[in-house]
């Protein structure tokens, strides 16, 4: 199941069929559409011009299996031309070929099948990148994943559809600390599924809590916190009900019996993240040795960095990790929840582990003004969401494309690195980089989602201009 | 024989590309009238391919009605190996132009019956009506395609065992591991290239100077297989200054004096745009 790039989403790109225009393949458009008044927003560093997000220019869900040899398929082939594709840590001036949602190896197509593209799309210099993956998103557009509504599926679908516009093609709906009956009701309603034109794919649920530290509970409700001291892993199972559609569990490693729980979760294929914790470094290292691989929103809800005990933050440069293993860490790069200097410290210490997350609350995607969410009235002003009538921040409402842009600007990293922090790294974290987070073709890395990022003076696209 | 001497590699590459462009454009290829081009691999023709791609991008040259035949391919090397000539042609030329894959012919070094593959290749060339322009390069030992020293000058497409020199020279492409270097190839024969209506040979760099001398100033000799083209009615050698180092001053001066004549072959430069109407 995949979504062929719908023609209507390609406004501004030229579609054409080879052979339909004269003896030669038509040449790249000489006349580019010029925007009369390109929108401008105030950006502190003018050398990196960034345009406001409107919508992505197109979306192709790329699923299916690459035929290895001598395949016969009559399905039409689309060739994205004149683009830069993110591959092997760099933007390469290469075309991207897609058939039935599969990224094709054009060389095999050429020599084995003697095939060529049915449709060529001039991307006018756009970047084509793997779709973003958000492993921590609590809701959006008024939908709260932690609420046991009658239509959990519908809520997830709505968010899945809306976040496509921000480049997110896969996500992990995240539930904050809740009473067991909420887990029992909500979890069966969210199933792992592939994405498509109808919405981003669900990679599994992220359960953040309730096995977290009382001291670092953050906004999680204290009365719902639990421990697995009595029954160990069985306590966790009783609380959640089922782990069938769970991809990620955030817990505090200093809790008694956490080691056996981490071991069992990892054995069952669930990624374990450390967070909302007062753990010291040695406890955190022990958790990683048991199989934990992620840190939930680094710096937030953990002990602050101390040079004699750097705490969980110290995992970024720890020398006590099992050989060949590395730790990934989530970063809320909305410019508010993490100071840019802290962002840079983390990035420079461990660039390949950085995973951008939105940690978005249900207010994400709502227009400015007052909104009622659950029992709370909140007010959105610019990029901040406040408890109405106060200046108390109530969570992140940044979208993933905003986070990528902010990270790019704040860290001074390359466009490639910024895009990979939102695609390749989360895919590696969840063990799905064989089909997500990359634009590889071939037998074992042939599937993924792609997004097109416009560049230059085109107002109707998300722009990341170098 | 024509000998065209340019100051340096880039100019020689451009001259060769212009010549190919003019020949294709003036041929006015069409659905019933394909231009047939023989193509080499290696480092020498890279600059020429780049230029041809530029001409295609600018709309001056189109390969829709061009058929290509490559000179050679390694035996037993996976087709998608980065050093295979399939990979070379795809990455350096075909993926950038509008050629129909059905019109591209490269010998299959993994064919179950290599002899049959070679015969079929000759057959395909014949069916295409022969080759209009065969572009080639040479090795420092004067081999054209993989027709190593000692090859018959009337040879046809066949399996060929590489000379030790060539295997050693190729080791750098295979991690300097001699055991990984292919030792056999499929190659068109000297006779196959001789049958082309026109042959253009690119020779650049001081390390090929002795081969150029052997090619044009000494007699026809199967130890320097490229010398066979002295007997071809239409051969152009395109070289840079470095490649002329072993030639007699008299030879170089004579051909340089003819440059104003030879340049008429590429000036004016023709374009497909002029023929679309």
From TrEMBL, chain A:
Keyword match Metal-binding: yes
Gene Ontology molecular-function annotations: metal ion binding; N-acetylglucosamine-6-phosphate deacetylase activity
Cofactor(s) demanded: a divalent metal cation
InterPro entries, per the entry: Amidohydro-rel, GlcNAc_6-P_deAcase, Metal-dep_hydrolase_composite, Metal_Hydrolase
CDD domains: NagA (cd00854)
Top EC class for this record: hydrolase
Entry similarity comment: Belongs to the metallo-dependent hydrolases superfamily. NagA family.
NCBIfam families: nagA (TIGR00221)
Protein's recorded name: N-acetylglucosamine-6-phosphate deacetylase
UniProt organism field: Acipenser ruthenus (Sterlet sturgeon)
TrEMBL record, chain B:
Top EC group: hydrolase
Reaction catalysed by this enzyme: alpha-D-glucosamine 6-phosphate + H2O = beta-D-fructose 6-phosphate + NH4(+)
Protein name, entry field: Glucosamine-6-phosphate isomerase
The EC number(s) this enzyme carries: 3.5.99.6
Species this protein is from: Acipenser ruthenus (Sterlet sturgeon)
GO cellular component: cytoplasm
Subunit organization: Homohexamer.
Domain Glucosamine/galactosamine-6-phosphate isomerase per the UniProt entry, residue ranges: 16-232
UniProt GO molecular function: glucosamine-6-phosphate deaminase activity; identical protein binding; isomerase activity
CDD domains with a match to the protein in the record: GlcN6P_deaminase
This protein's UniProt keywords: Carbohydrate metabolism, Coiled coil, Cytoplasm, Hydrolase, Isomerase
A Pfam family that the UniProt record links to this protein: Glucosamine_iso
Keyword set includes Cytoplasm: yes
GO biological process: carbohydrate metabolic process; glucosamine catabolic process; N-acetylglucosamine catabolic process; N-acetylneuraminate catabolic process
Family recorded in the similarity comment: Belongs to the glucosamine/galactosamine-6-phosphate isomerase family.
